[in-house]
Amino acid sequence: RVKLMRASDLVNKDGFASGKSDPYIIMTVGAHTHRVPTINDTCNPHWDLTYDFPIEVVQGQELLLEFYDDDDRQDDEFLGRAKIQTSVVAERGYIEGYWVDLVDTESGK
Fold first, then answer.
1. Which residues fall within 8 angstroms of residue 43, CB to CB, at 6 or more apart?
2. pTM score of the predicted model
């Protein structure tokens, strides 16, 4: 089970004149994917949502979070990604307040 709380310091892909990014996340574990709803006009979104992922094999599996800027008139822009090994959660049983820095981007966690 994944409880997604928030993100912070995401890249502003919409520029200064047109506002801030409209982030959403694609969360994937194995063949299971969830699209997290878009939060408009923020680089520090709050979701507070819970998703369930069935995990058949703990070792070698990971939770992949891919962040995008939702753009109505053009292709959505990539904001960054993070990976969390499912073994980390399995070993600890429960993780609270766990922040992960985004990669392949300028900023964000």
1. 9, 10, 11, 12, 20, 21, 23
2. 0.89
